Amino acid sequence: MSENSNTTSIMTEVTTLIRNWEDEHGEANYDPIQTLTRLAEICEVETENYLKMDPDPFDERHPSRTDPDCKLGQILKALFRKDNFMNKLVNDYLRDTYYSRTGITGRDVDQLNIAACRLMLDVMPGLETSVVFQPDMDNLIHRLIKWTTNSIEPLQSYATGLLAAAMEIPEIATRFREQNGRLVPLLLQRLRRLQNSSEFSVTSNSTRPFAHLSTMKSPPYRGDGVIKIPPSAGVKRPRENGVTPSSRSSLKENTDLNSARTDNDLSDNESGQKRKRIKLDHEPAEEVSQSSPQKLILFTETSNSSWAELESFMIGTVQIFPPTLATRQILILRYLTPLGEYQEFLSHVFENDALSLILCYVNVRVTKEARLAFEALKYLAALLCHKKFSIEFIQMEGLEALLEVPRPSIAATGVSICLYYLGYCEEAMERVCLLPKYIITSLVKYALWLLECSHDSGRCHAIMFFGLTFQFKVILEEFDAQDGLRKLHNVISTLSILLPDTDPAQLNEDQECAARQIVRHVCVAYRRYLEAHLNSKVEPIKRSQLRPNERPAQPPVPAQPSYKPCKSSPEEIQQNVELLLQHMPFRGHWVPVDQLLKLGGITLLLKIIAFAYEWNYSGRAETVRSALDVLAIACVMPKVQLLFCERVELPEESATVGINIILGAAEGEIVADADVQKAALRVIVNCVCAPICRVGGNLARFSAILNSPNKKMKFKSSEELIQKVWDCVRSNSGIMVLLQLMNIKTPITDADCIRTLACKALAGLARSETVRQIVSKLPLFTSGQLQNLMRDPILQEKRQEHVTFQKYALELLERLSGKTKHRGNDLEVSLANIHRANVVAQTKILFNDRQLLQLIHQHLITKGYPDTAAMLVKEANLGNAITQVSTHQPTKFRYSTTLTPSRFKLTLSGSQHRSLPSPVIQKEETTTIINGTNSNSPAIKLIKKTPQSLISSTPVQNSRLQKQTNSDLVVRVPSQTMLEELTSPVEQPRVTLDSIITEYLTNQHALCKNPMANCPKFNLFIPHKCPDPKPKIASANNFVVRCARRAIGYQCKSMNRKFIHSRFCPVQTIRSSSDGDFFTCAKFLPGDKSIVVGDYSGDIRIFNLHSGNEEHMFQTHDNYIVHLEPNRSGEFLLTSSTWGRPRSALWGIRGSEMKFALDDEEHVEFSKVNQDRIVATKLEVANIYDANTGQSITRLVPTVSNQYTRNKATFSPFDDLVLSDGVLFDVASGKQIHKLDKLNQTQSGVFHPNGLEIVSNTEVWDVRTFHLLKTVPVLNQRSAIFSPVNSAIYAISMEQELDDGDSTFDSSFKTVDAMDYSSIATIDVKKNIYDLAVNRFDTQIVIVENQGVYQSVQESVVRIYDVGRKRDDEDEQVNDEEDEEEDDMDGSDDEGSDNDVMDFLDPLVINLGGDNENNDNNANNEEDNDDDDDNLLDSESESWTSLSSDSDDSFVDDVFDL
Length: 1458
What we know:
Blueprint: H1 2-24, H2 33-52, H3 63-66, H4 71-80, H5 83-91, H6 98-102, H7 109-123, H8 129-132, H9 138-149, H10 155-167, H11 170-175, H12 177-197, H13 249-255, H14 307-314, H15 325-339, H16 346-351, H17 354-362, H18 364-367, H19 370-383, H20 387-395, H21 398-403, H22 410-424, H23 426-433, H24 437-451, H25 456-469, H26 473-481, H27 484-493, H28 509-546, H29 570-583, H30 591-599, H31 601-611, H32 620-634, H33 638-644, E1 647-648, E2 656-657, H34 658-667, H35 674-688, H36 702-707, H37 718-731, H38 734-742, H39 751-765, H40 769-775, H41 779-782, H42 785-791, H43 799-817, H44 831-842, H45 849-863, H46 866-876, H47 879-888, E3 926-929, E4 940-943, H48 948-951, H49 955-958, E5 969-971, H50 976-982, H51 993-1006, H52 1039-1046, H53 1053-1060, E6 1064-1071, E7 1079-1084, E8 1090-1095, E9 1099-1104, E10 1110-1115, E11 1121-1126, E12 1132-1137, E13 1144-1148, E14 1153-1158, E15 1163-1166, E16 1173-1178, E17 1181-1186, E18 1192-1196, E19 1210-1211, E20 1217-1220, E21 1223-1226, E22 1232-1235, E23 1246-1247, E24 1253-1256, E25 1259-1262, E26 1268-1271, E27 1278-1282, ...
Parallel strand pairs: 4-5
Antiparallel strand pairs: 1-2, 3-4, 6-35, 7-8, 8-9, 9-10, 11-12, 12-13, 13-14, 15-16, 16-17, 17-18, 19-20, 20-21, 21-22, 23-24, 24-25, 25-26, 27-28, 28-31, 29-30, 31-32, 33-34, 34-35
Helix pairs in contact: 1-2, 1-4, 2-4, 2-7, 7-10, 9-10, 10-15, 12-15, 15-19, 17-19, 19-22, 20-23, 22-25, 24-25, 24-26, 25-28, 27-28, 28-29, 28-32, 31-32, 31-34, 32-35, 33-37, 34-35, 34-38, 35-39, 38-39, 39-43, 45-46
């Protein structure tokens, strides 16, 4: 109560002062000094109270944002609300001509300027400096410079402080560069004089009550500021890290001691508020010199220090009036700090020895001025941006001085930013790493303490320091030795934004932003920590591989010095990860990853990635990318990969799997950033592309099983692990995500890299047999889309990335096809070509030996060897054959060049030269032989040499072993050395006449469009060609001809289906009777006499099918009806709406009453067989209800949800299965049977009426094997409606949402053959199609057609079409305008001939529907070619009735014409 009253009294006084000023400042001879002075006094008192609360010294926010209850913040708000006062203060009271301008005489303007500057300094924490020091305020800055240069005190100091605030704005510092060049040396010299005149206490002169009772002096410091210790004479220090620590005894002695611990609850004497418990850092340090003769002991549990003494060390004060020497130095340092980063002022720093000034201020134990030390440390940090100064700082033992700064204190927080800037300079850090070990130990210990300090800025600076210095092995090892990873993990594990039970409302925006920045810095530090360990882990593996085995005496490759930074590019890191996957034992341990797992760091990183979806700040992308980079390295451990497959609990959400989070990041859902996508893909690649058989991954486990039969094995084999990872990626829609990323086009600068990584991941995933089966049926491979992607890069500058993409794309094709070698143009590879190549490879080539002898005989005759040819004829008995050859082939045997396949290399030839036996090559000519004939195209060159070359053993012959430079295969005469090699045990493949002929025939066989695996003997005289497959008996285009031919065994059901479902004739049109309403859905009622229609307002209307009149109407919902379904008896009706309650319901049609409501269900359907159950859908959950009672029977929840945007649960045709969200459930047990792979975002799928297949968007799945049978591109983003006779599928486009929030519908529907899924026709109705339904005989369809969308619907009709017939000529002349004038376009009532036609067609169509036909799942999909459909529709320009007028003879001829 007293605190509230004190605050009220202060605010009342401030308000009174401002009010009095408003009333009096306009009067003549008004003196504002008294008001300004009193306001400054109030602000200074509250500033001191605010600083005693130990706020973050680097927090530049308004005090009221840091602490809403802060009195200083309230005072500043009250002042800044008075614009007139603040404008007067800035624009008038800071002028040195104020009195003269107002005509006031006899007053000292300096006193007014002092009071104004003093108040301005006091309100600076709440002042926006960029607003005060605008470009039009240059006169004020010039005035401040003049006062800073030469004026009385305290105006000079106050002006320096205000000028410091102005120089923090880079534009002002640049604009006044010349003036700053004169001020910096001036103020450095002034700072030196002030320091020399400062009387820093050597010992504590203050006496405290009961101090004489202590056995120690307090504080326990010597005159030089170092803790007192007994001297350890005669102890020599060893050389550590190559440096002898000769002059660092004070720090070493400091690190060997334990300081006193203060654990007292302290109170603020001025404010009366309780203070937080402040603990000094007194953890025992490791003793470096183990040979010390005595152990130094300090009283650790006893402390006689008081807050009066500790306050100057920990928080300190700044006395503004009158300014003390320390305050004047603080204000000068504030001015120098923003200018310290400028290179042009660095010379003044060295000339005036600013470093010695700073090191003097940093010694808080001497100066006892924590605030002065803090400002000096800020200036030091600015100077450490310069490499030269950083090196000088290390050489002057500045680091040791930093480590002596007491902690906790505000100066220790200042040390954090110095360490951060020091870590940026690699040359300086190299020198730091060469310092003695005890200094490194103290440095890491100090930085780890900063991780646990109370100031967020100190923690962030320490985290960033470690992130920069992990690349130095010395720092990394010391960090691990002091359990640094646990302390680093504790920084974020305790943050409120990551705790599951934290109420987000408890944190304000500033607290959340600060916590997210800490998470960002920790993730970056994690990444660099594991990258450094990865380099250390891989280095010995690389060295072992680089060491030559044949020269063991050679010295090993030297390791990188520990003081040198170890850097790696992202590509090198990925190579190191892959190297580790290849060589690291499966059951091996890696300490950093093991510890990270033990601490829960992997799970926490997955949560951070998931949480980042809702975070909105500039560093979100870097946070997620760094977390993913950590996971990419850590996943070399099997435990981490198993952890990815486990559930991650997220607040306010259902649990998800780690792989799902990573896939979401790869898809761009978490952050739309290309680097994040690439990082996520690297994680997936490292998981799915890991070796199947890893080192030590297949060890026998029989001993463990025998010893403990009930004990669950901790590790699985590497095969089981990789299979689990593959299955997990599949079940979380990994195939769909990777396929989408392979087709990515934006951002154009990263698209090539993204699709390369996606292709690599898919190639690794394709090692799974299940994945291969699915992927091989997708259009990316069946339609040649992958080959199109392989042709050109997205960005021409990324050709190197594109080459890598081609490599993995070919690897993927190899895995899908089983082909292991590629020849020629690999970009022309397709699955069909690969299949043909496999058939050719399996073909055994056989040919007639006598034909080959005939060719040899003809060759001998041509070359002038008649005697040899005659001997061949005699010995081979070729007399008759030679005659036939000469008769049929009188000229030189030659194939046309169009039939000769081009070859790139011999099958039996390798990269080395193969030599023929010496008897073969004894001619003196060079002959080019191609496929047994002479030709100009190069293939095999046989270079003949003289017989002398066989016996020549000169060195010249050995020179022929030089590397081949041309692309032709050159067969040379073997020298003696080569003959010896031929006699070696290793048998070399030889080019023989048989191999040449075999390859020639193989190449001919490869040109066949339909090659056969089993071929008869090849004829050497006639070009080979496999016979084309015998086409099926062509079905006649004429329907009557097909019907007549069916009697003699012709099968033409497919053509009949195409004929029937490509013709539609509108026969009835029903229009909406009310303005503003429009129809949304429709269904046929049993009996095919009525239709039931739902509209936009929630009404159900029943219309007569023949007359089009409305028979009945009743209200069901308050809004848009999206679905309705009557049962087969016509008694009940299921309805669903978009929102409201009930969302869905079951209605009685006759009484128009609601049987029961299903309030939250989005979609409802009857069961298929008995219709005694209802399956309802809400998001991914399906519920089965009793249709009689409305009671819930079974709740079906998928283990892993596919999260389709338009999931609709449905029964199988036999009611034994339910498909919901892509998951099959057993109705009897309610258990999940199988989860289909998600390959689209919208539709779960429907059952084929045959019960054997599921159609999910474009995919057709086999229910028996769960294999992907085929894809039907024409069904993409369309709802499939099966005809009741199972002969066709009607596909209507689903509602498509546009970017502006509107929706659009398609104006056409498609028909697809339900047997082979070939496209039949595309019918355009020229209006938006909202719904389509089929009657039970598939003789009529009803379509809801609307002109416009939702609120802008201009016309709404329900149109009934006859299936299987076209409009007559008169009907075709009726245009859309006549439709609007009550023309129903009922062609069936116009001509009697049409009725006769329909009388013939109706039983025929019913007969077609009743026939059973085997489902051909192996038929190839036909492309949805509208031209073909149009040809099909228009191919019969002559109706079948016109054929009946022909003569019987001609009709019979047509019927039996084969």
